[in-house]
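Reviewers asked in the last cycle whether our approach scales beyond single polypeptides. To address this, we selected a multi-component target totalling 151 residues and predicted its structure end to end. The input consisted of the following lines:
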Amino acid sequence: MKVLDLRCLQDHRFEGWFASEDDFRSQSAQLLIECPCCGDTSISRLPSAPRLNVSGAREPQAAPTAAADGSKAPVEMTMQAAWLRAVQHVLSHTVDVGERFAEEARRIHYGEADERAIRGRATRDEAEALREEGIDVMSLPVPQALKGPVQ
Ligand SMILES: [Zn+2]
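The resulting structure, written as structure tokens, was:
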């Protein structure tokens, strides 16, 4: 049994259990490994380094092993397409708070605003400060193709 550190395109990190490295490679090639946070199937393997992601003690999460029922996306889906899909998923599941991102993230963290997924703009310093307060933020470069009015 192999425990591998995995990461999706949105930088969610999780662990997967595999019979062997070959097992991981074949499941990965068939897009059978999904991120437990967002369902992304573009999974890459992290070098095993115990110092990664040290903030907060998190329970290790098993990657759900999808049933081989043939309903998965075709293997030839390019990284680009997978990335666009992942970003689109985020855009459609978050509320745009624009420049108020850091402020809103804090209000949610401290229970002053409703718990919800938000997106917006924050400077590197702001994002860094939020992380130091224990607030989970991630940077998501949005491809040019998806910019513009969001319905
Ligand atoms: Zn993810």
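The mean pLDDT is 77. We regard this as preliminary and will revisit it once experimental data from Aim 1 are available.
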